[in-house]
Amino acid sequence: MIAIFPGSFDPPTIGHISLIQRADEIFDEVVIAAATSDTCMFELDVRIGMLEACCHNMANVTVTRLEGLLADCAKTHNADVIIRGLRSAHDVSYEHSMAATNRIIGQNIETLILPALPEYSHISSSLAKDILCNNGDVSAFLPKEVIEKLG
Ligand code: ADP
Q: 39-58: per-residue pLDDT in tens?
C-alpha cells in the first residue's frame, strides 16, 4: 500500500521524520507531499531538499510538491491512505475535519492518524522557527540534515 504524508514541513522537524520512519515500516511506499505556501519561512525547493536529505536512507520514501488539492495529489500518486500526526488534543479537531473533507472529495480515501511519540509531542516547526529567529539551539528540534542546510 502507498501512503501520502502531506504537510508544510517549514522546516521538517525530528517529529516529522519520526512519523515518516514509522509510516515507512507500515507501508510499501511513502510519498511526502510538501505544500506550496506563500507564508512559509523556507522556499518549497529548500523544504524539499531538507526532506530528501533526511530520508536519503529510506529507499521507499519519495518527496513531491503538493500543488492543488491533496485529494488530487493522492490520486496522481496512487496513494491508498493519507498519513497525519497527532501531537496533542489541540490537533484533534483540525485533523478530524481534514480527514472528513479528504474522504468526501477524495473518493473515500482514508486518513491514518499516528500519535506522536511522547518524546516528540512538544516539537513543532513553529517553535523551531521561533528558536531559530532568536539564534537559539535547535538541535533538539531539527534533524542534523536540516541544520546543515540552514547555512
Ligand atoms: P500542516 O501545516 O499541514 O499542519 P505541518 O508540517 O505542521 O503541516 O505538519 C504536518 C503533519 O505532521 C501534521 O499532521 C502534524 O500533526 C504532524 N506533526 C508535526 N509535528 C509532529 C510531531 N512532533 N510528531 C508527530 N507528528 C507531527
A: 999 999 999 999 999 999 99
- pTM given for the model: 0.97
- Residue with CA closest to ligand 1 atom 4: 7
b or e along 112-142 (b: 16 or more beta carbons within 10 Å of the residue's beta carbon)? eeeebeeebeebbbeebbeebeeeeebeebb
As given in the structure block, the three cell numbers for residue 125 are 516547526
Please calculate the CA angle 140-145-148 and round it to the nearest 5 degrees.
Answer: 90
| 138 touches ligand 1 (CB under 6 Å) | no
